[in-house]
User: Which sequence fits this backbone?
């Protein structure tokens, strides 16, 4: 399963820009990969892991702006179409390296 996280945070003041940058850094530290500027995704093994991940995000989520989370299956994620531009090779879009313990 994948968690796709979309966010739109205010960046008008220096403090707001710092909050937004810290949020993005924290997402990367949690293992998220950037799909687009304000769209990140992370692979999880099951719904229990997804629930725990959402709880962790809730603890450091900015209070201003909007953050949306969408859970999709690997099949749904794999069926995503890129309509403009090219598929970027540095974005991991498969589970071929996934190890289930």
Assistant:
């Amino acid at each position: 399963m994948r968690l796709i996280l979309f966010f739109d945070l205010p960046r008008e003041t220096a403090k707001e820009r710092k909050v937004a940058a810290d949020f993005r850094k924290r997402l990367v530290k949690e293992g998220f990969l950037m799909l687009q500027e304000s769209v990140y995704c992370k692979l999880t093994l099951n719904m229990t892991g997804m629930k725990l991940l959402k709880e962790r995000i809730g603890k450091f989520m900015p209070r201003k702006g909007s953050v949306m989370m969408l859970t999709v299956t690997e099949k749904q994620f794999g069926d995503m179409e890129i309509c403009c531009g090219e598929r970027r090779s540095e974005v991991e879009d498969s589970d071929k390296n996934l190890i289930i313990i």
